[in-house]
Amino acid sequence: MFTVLLPALLLVSGPFDGSAAEAPLTFDRAELQTEAGRTALYERVVDVATDVCEAENQNGMMPTLSIRICVADTVERTITAIGEPRLTQFHASLSVSPDSAANVVHVALRD
Questions:
Q1: What percent of the chain clears pLDDT 90, i.e. is strictly above it?
Q2: Cα–Cα distance measured from residue 75 to residue 44, given in angstroms and rounded to the nearest whole number
Q3: What's the CA gap between 66 and 96, in Å, rounded?
Q4: What is the pLDDT of residues 52-84, one digit of tens each?
Q5: For the purposes of burial, counting CB atoms within 10 Å of the CB of 63, is it exposed (0-12), middle (13-18) or buried (19 or more)?
Q6: Which of 66, 46, 47 shows the shortest CA–CA distance to 106?
């Protein structure tokens, strides 16, 4: 089992101590060997990032936008930290517009 920390981007209004919120995510490297496993892990990354960002940004001036930006940044950094090329490629496929004209942040746009 491996554990990565999901460091949330803080977009809160008001004073804070400057440290990013973190949440552990535990996974087995065997999950990364199958498409279904990578998809399930990716969904867990998004879910944990959402939970952390909602908790950290609940008092923000623009909570919905702040949370979406936080989730997108947290997912991006977590996928990079895991460092599995096929997971990174899966994430990239969700982060590019269908016509490849522009990069978009898929996670930030989900409802």
A1: 20
A2: 10
A3: 21
A4: 888 877 777 667 777 788 888 888 888 988 899
A5: middle
A6: 46
What does 47-109 look like in DSSP terms, one character per residue?
HHHHHHHHHHTTT-SSHHHHHHHHHHHHHHHHHHHH--HHHHHHHHHHSB-TTSSSB--HHHH
47 CB-near residues (< 8 Å, 6+ apart): none
Furthest CA-CA distance within the chain: 44
Which two tokens mark 29? 């490297």
- In this structure, what token pair is assigned to residue 77? 């950094």
- pLDDT band for position 14 (50/70/90)? very low
**Helices 63-82 + 85-94 axis angle, to 10:** 150
Enter the tokens of residue 13: 């209004």
Single pTM value for the model: 0.72
Helix/strand/coil for 6: strand
What's the pLDDT at 38?
93
